[in-house]
Amino acid sequence: GRHKAIELDSQLCGFRLDLEALAKHRETLLEMLLVAPTPDDRIQILAAICGISGSLGDRLEACERGEQIVELARRVVDRFRLGHLLAGHAFNLTCIKAMNRAEAAILESIDIARESNHINGLAHRLWIYGGVVLPRDRVRAREVWQESLAYHREINNRQGILWVLGNLGIADLEDQLFDRAEPMLRERLRLAKALNDTGAIHQTFSLLIRLSITTRDWQAAQALALDRHTYGVPSAVAAVELGWLTEQHGRRDEAQTLYREALNASAEDPDLALLARLCLREPFSDEQALRDALDRLDGTPGTSLAPNGSEIIDHVIRSVRLRHTLTAL
Questions:
Q1: pLDDT band, very low/low/confident/very high, at 327 (cuts 50, 70, 90)
Q2: How high is the pLDDT of residue 232?
């Protein structure tokens, strides 16, 4: 019916981040909900509204709609479909940190997947369950994610493998289990490249570079940075990154050359030009302008300077800020 067409277009709008179109679709679906002829139509329309609310960042609304969906579904759908609806609801509940409710929903959903030997569903639901368990039991969360990974490998669901490798790698990196984290993140990077998943490519580069910097493996960090630079990193940003890494090696003269290269290439980005000048240790008299520029760049994901984020640029800004004693040490 019409609601299915709207749901499909809403998914495309979500990918394009067309929030205005999503909001209009939600209003249309809410009107359709009032005259939905059957319980099954109501479930489908509510599910579409739930998905749009999640895309708009309104997870509380998504969870409220999810409760309505599950309550209705228990009366009119089979257990297989109920398991699918419970999994989606559980994921939204994790987003509002309602972990007890999320756990109840996802465990029921997992039981249904095991009953029906639905491997794809089981793999995905275990991935969600790992996120539910993580805050209170990191060891158990890893076990759950490992089981999820095994099922994803069994059916060769490469996107699912990518997700779970990310969770396992990040957890190990946070716990400084570097020998465990690195092979998982390396595999994830290879997979992200094969799938041409730009977001996962840049995220995984960032995680691997963070690992290399933390372990002071400057050679590995430089190799990763050079590889990452082939994925649309502006030349001036690349030069700053390589300059900073070269400086950590103790090769100050080489670093100076790279910083000058960055300065020459950053005519259209005054903040980046300022950062390059500060890396060159040029004197700067207007401290307020300096502070304002660093504030614009510091810790802001998706800045114009590094649209996909940059672990190295974060370190550069931190080094400059501390060197100029703009924040307490």
A1: very low
A2: 87
**Least confident stretch, 32-41, 212-221, 281-290:** 281-290
pTM of the model: 0.84
The whole-angstrom separation of Cα 266 and Cα 313 is: 15
The pLDDT of residue 321 is 80
